[in-house]
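ok here's the first one, seq then struct tokens
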Amino acid sequence: MSLGFSVEALIPRARGGGALRMGLVRVAEDEWLTPGADMAARAAVFAAEPECVQVLPEAEAAVDEVAALLPSSPARGGVAQRRRGEDAEVGGRSLDRGHPSVEPSARHLPLQGRIDGAVDAMRSAASGVWEDLCILTPDATGQYRLTAAALAFPTDWHLAEKLGHALTPIHAPIHGYAEQLASGVDHFFATLQPDSIFGRTNWFVVASDAWRYLPQDAPETRFAHVTAENAGATLFVRCERQTLRRLPQSVAVLFTIGIHVEPLDRLSTAAVARVAQSVAGISSGEHERRAAPFYAEALTRYAERRNRSPELLA
């Protein structure tokens, strides 16, 4: 089952209200990442917002693996060479893998230099694909923590607030996550096999088509201009096309987020109806988190008008 690479294709795969669920489907390797995307918007963000790429020391090996996995990512040069040539601790003995091309200074690069190199590699990897990249590594207790990310297009969250945290605290703003979903997500992360890619989709109704969605105003202000008459042009469906895969060498999990945005009037009548039904069906806590009280009535009335008069489609 394919997820697709557009809002129209992703909406049927998204949760339509009710209890939280992962809603995973298998994704083929050749359908893993968005093809043919315009990368200029991502390049602009990475140039202007250096803090949107961060790496903790425990993610260093996983970043190397991601850089090697993505064909568009340039080699990490000296930092990658350092990892291949550095001493390995095995059973208390130091085993030099013996790469004469690696200079001694590279093999003993200070921690900050290694992290700077990992940040550069993460930025390069994420600059070559449409998706944002998040790396989650298991700690000593088996809890997966967000230890590296290149987050150009966030949906109302800041990397600095999530970095280093485990899955349940990361998802704390989602009402019902701890009770309904946390144990299933933890089990999935613990058992995910390296030869499998899984995907899911999430959706939001927003009042902006910005790729980087970090609203600062109150929701009552943000949606004040939206009416049933103009909702087709002023409300947008923002879908996150998410995938998860195990990195076999580091055993970290790579989580990708591809953003797709369309105004309601660019979607089919059936897709608009499903979005309206989904908004009506989400729980009260999620209703407020998604700012639905400030646009739900206009969305419902617009969907009803579209259903009666398909010619409203722009």
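and now the second one, same deal
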Amino acid sequence: MQNEHRMELFACRASRDFALKVVDEMNRMRDPSDPEIHLGESEVTSFSDGEFQPSFIESVRGATCFILQSTFPPADNLMELLLTIDAAKRASADKVIAVIPYFGWARQDRKDKPRVSIGAKLAANLLKAAGTDGLMACDLHADQIQGFFDIPVNHLYASNDFLGILKKLQRQFKDTLSIAAPDMGGAKRANVYARNLRCPVVICHKTRARANVVDKIVPIGDVEGRDIVIVDDIIDTAGTLTQAANELVKRGARSVRAFATHPVLSGPAYERIDASALSEVYVTDTIPLSTDPEKVKYQGKFQVVSLANTFAKMILRVYNYLPISPEFII
């Protein structure tokens, strides 16, 4: 069944460059007889007190609107997405699908101590209240976050894009490749990659002194003489990642690389990675790398893998009521 409503794709300011790449990929996939897909025109009016108001320059009446924005800090990125969704619904869009390559607040997915918020659930409630009819996100920090929504959630993974590169590395290293999880919470993800590559798994047991401060990391598994790839969903301050890499090398690993979907990279993350034992760090473009010259000079180890093609395919499949699950290994 094909969608009877026209498709419109819009982007908020934090993810406009990524959205332009998605549109380019969608145009490569379309039938030559179909009209060219374009990124819809919108604007944001800013006020002197910091308040802002998104608006659409073109009509969205009766359209299925995909609105693309990663909600990484600051909180303005989430607020801009909510206001844009609200504007689309008030402009009589038929459906609004929030496309959130990086779903922020996802690490607040439970009450891990008394008297704290569950930010992921609150963000889900806000998106529903704004009028979102469906959501598309990539590598949620915890799969159960999908259950926080009372609307359809299409969960995408970077695994297919990463696996092609990992298979090339495996051919290069022959039988010395191992997949590592930086902590116990990443064991499931590491096992999925290891099963597809038919290679051993190393689990790093981590204890924290406090939030964002790692006390100790102990690798569990065969490390000596191995070429190890650490897989994760987020790199934030890079404390866990770099300490794990340094510990693996100290215990005899031949080389250590990292693959992570979302490069949040806050605080001293760039400097830590540059000074660490990591030889390469592969990330995606769900969040853009910093353009600050003081950060750019520490980006020599980074390789960016674009997910534009994956998002383009999945947006078209969702728009045309086609399943997405057969496209992913997880």
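notes on #2: The chain is about 30% helix and 25% strand. Residues 76-90 form the longest helix (15 residues).
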